[in-house]
Amino acid sequence: MSDLFPPFAPDPNEPRKRLFKPVPFRMIAPNIITLIALCLGLWAIRLAFDGQYEKAVVAVIVAAFLDGVDGRIARLLKGTSRFGAELDSLADFLNFGVTPALILYSFVLHELGRVGWIGSLVLAIAAALRLARFNVMIDDPNRPEWKKNFFVGMAAPMGAMSALLPLYLSFLGIPIQDASVGPVILIYVVGIAFLMVSTIPTYSGKTMGKYVPRQWVLPIFVLSVAAFGLLVSFPWEMLSLITVAFLLLIPVSVVRYRKLERLDAKNDPMKNDPLAKNGPHAKTAPAGTEPPPVS
């Protein structure tokens, strides 16, 4: 009688299977930048509770810069991935939601007690909701090309930088940490949180400046160097100016968005077709015919 369980003798010439496939470095590089930005956000929280608010704000600003760089590097190297997108969203929630909320609470909102803590919570949760909505809308295949130049609501990095405006002003010598100013700062922070979760369109600049006229190349170089020099030499003045200018630019972006929206509706026959609209006044198709498909 033969053995029911004969001993297994592996073939010595059989190639070994690799447990893990190699990953190209171009897929890893953008995620390394995201992780560095995440470390800066955590470091900023520690600096804030140590009372080093200037360094904490700088860490958040550098994290915002890296957040704008990692995605572009990923697209440049063709290293985009779902993992990188999820990691970027988690890092953004910490860097531009939790970190500025805790910095503001440690800096001045703690003077208001529980109400100040609620204001910090509102800012952090607004950043989370804004990022979740962004992740859903970015997968919309029917999104017009012109809408890519606008964010729906204020972007999380710009929301964090705008929320930190009271610290910029404090570094310039304005008495922000007085108890009487606390309610004003609370209202301002809640207003920034509202802008992040609102549907107010704001400029993103993603599709602007793809091609620059040749005569503008040298002036742009000079202006870029001048702006960088001013930012390094007068950081808090420049950050305050940039924040105020961006907030004042929001009505302009709304007007531009509405204009492009009207033009898009005018050029798209489906949006003006009564059969494609639902409602009590919508026309019905003739009997025996199928209504046109709606995309």
Describe this protein's structure.
The longest helix is centred in the last third of the chain and has 33 residues, at 235-267. With 295 residues, the chain is an all-alpha fold. 62% of the residues lie in helices and 2% in strands. Helix 1 packs antiparallel against helix 2 and helix 2 runs antiparallel to helix 5 (156-163). The radius of gyration is 26 Å and the shape is globular. It has a two-stranded antiparallel ribbon with strand order 1-2.
Strand order of the largest sheet: 1-2
Alpha carbon gyration radius: 26 Å
Alpha-carbon distance between the termini? 70 Å
The SS-based structural class is mainly alpha
Query: Low-confidence segments, ≥5 residues, pLDDT <50?
Result: 279-295
Short description:
This protein is mostly helical and 295 residues long. It has helices spanning 25-49, 53-76, 82-107, 114-137, 156-163, 165-171, 182-197, 217-233, 235-267, 269-272; strands at 150-152, 201-203. A two-stranded antiparallel ribbon has the order 1-2.
Any descriptors?
295 residues, mainly alpha, 2% strand, disordered C terminus
What is this structure's SSE topology?
Blueprint: H1 25-49, H2 53-76, H3 82-107, H4 114-137, E1 150-152, H5 156-163, H6 165-171, H7 182-197, E2 201-203, H8 217-233, H9 235-267, H10 269-272
Antiparallel strand pairs: 1-2
Helix pairs in contact: 1-2, 1-3, 2-3, 2-5, 3-4, 3-5, 4-7, 5-7, 6-9, 8-9
